[in-house]
Automatic annotation (TrEMBL):
PANTHER family assigned: LYR MOTIF-CONTAINING PROTEIN 2, SUCCINATE DEHYDROGENASE ASSEMBLY FACTOR 1, MITOCHONDRIAL
Residue stretches making up the Complex 1 LYR protein domain: 14-74
Name the record gives this protein: Complex 1 LYR protein domain-containing protein
Family: Belongs to the complex I LYR family. SDHAF1 subfamily.
CDD domains: Complex1_LYR_SDHAF1_LYRM8
Major subcellular location class: mitochondrion
Leader peptide range in chain numbering: none
Pfam families: Complex1_LYR
Keywords, sorted A to Z: Chaperone, Mitochondrion
Entries under InterPro entries matching the protein: Complex1_LYR_dom, Complex1_LYR_SDHAF1_LYRM8
Length: 98
């Protein structure tokens, strides 16, 4: 392959990408309908956070990564069919300062 022409990614950016890919891989193991729903929710959530979260707010990003990893572990469970329970967790209000 060779060297990439893109910018070097930070460790945290690599963690975010890895988490995103993990969700997409886990989605492939579900039914086609659930897979589409999971991919849609995950991409919307990551896009929303990329636009709304300050890139220098490392504590909050680390919190989102930890929460995402827990949700990914739940999604990987054979007992989890769809995203309904995870979807509720993703969209719980967070305590942002006014």
């Amino acid at each position: 392959m060779g060297t990439s022409s893109g910018p070097k990614l930070s460790g945290m950016q690599k963690q975010v990408l890895s988490l995103y890919r993990g969700f997409l891989r886990a989605a492939r193991l579900k039914s086609p309908e659930d897979r589409r729903q999971i991919e849609s929710i995950v991409s919307a959530e990551f896009r929303r956070n990329s636009q709304q979260v300050d890139r220098k707010n490392f504590l909050y990003i680390e919190y989102l990564l930890r929460r995402g990893k827990k949700q990914l572990d739940q999604l990987k469970s054979p007992d989890t069919v769809g995203m309904s329970s995870l979807y509720l967790n993703l969209h719980q209000p967070t305590n942002h300062k006014p």
